[in-house]
Amino acid sequence: MQRASTAIRLTDGWLLADPLDAPGLDDALAEAPVLGITLLMERHRRDADAVAARHRVFVGTAVPPQIEPRRVVRFPGWHEVALWLPDRRLLVAADVLGTAGYFVARDDEPLAVHPLIRPFPPRRALGDLDPLAVAVGHGAPVTAHATEALYDALRTARRRLPAAYRHAWGMSRRARARN
């Protein structure tokens, strides 16, 4: 699933978004305290409780005032918020955007709207942003031409829906053939 999580370095410590526990995580965070863990969507609890217990912090949805939460998905069973850090021009998303192969319509597409959300791309919530980087919950972050990648993903989400489903289907068939 190419799961990813984001650690945001603030002035007085770290804010973790949808954390994954991985070897070396605590060493990477050692330079400053973990201030808290925020969940961008209800089903992205992942390893939040284990990481929170080790760092003696709470898991919740609160964020510091310098971070703007943006509601990007509100469907029954799927509520998601993205984080916008305007001073850094960093966008952090859980599932609404991704770079993993099953998100994209073709291999050279740098960023895409989740296949189930493509019919309803979050243009109002994200269309006014100009990120330098986009961190996603599935796949590698976008660190080059991020604004263009975001606008393209939002603009072409519906049009590329059939191609995205064909691409995901092809990926799953190739994966099954290897096993």
Descriptors:
globular; 25% helix; 179 residues; 24% strand; four-stranded mixed β-sheet; alpha/beta; 5 helices; Metallo-beta-lactamase, Chain A
Report on this structure.
The chain has five helices and ten strands, in the order E-E-H-E-H-E-E-E-E-E-E-H-E-H-H. It has helices at 25-28, 48-55, 123-126, 146-156, 161-178, and strands at residues 6-10, 13-17, 34-38, 59-60, 68-75, 78-85, 90-92, 97-98, 112-113, 133-135. The longest helix has 18 residues, at 161-178. The chain has a single domain, classed as Ribonuclease Z/Hydroxyacylglutathione hydrolase-like (Metallo-beta-lactamase, Chain A, 4-Layer Sandwich), CATH 3.60.15. It is 25% helix and 24% strand. It has a four-stranded mixed sheet with strand order 1-2-3-4. The mean pLDDT is 94.
Overall pLDDT confidence? 94
Total beta strands: 10
The CATH homologous superfamily is named Ribonuclease Z/Hydroxyacylglutathione hydrolase-like
Report on the biggest sheet: 4 strands, mixed
Q: Please report the first level of CATH classification, the CATH class.
A: Alpha Beta
Number of domains: 1
Going across the biggest sheet, name each strand in turn: 1-2-3-4
Whole-number radius of gyration? 16 Å
Uncertain runs: none
Strand share of the residues?
Answer: 15-25%
**Helix and strand sequence:** EEHEHEEEEEEHEHH
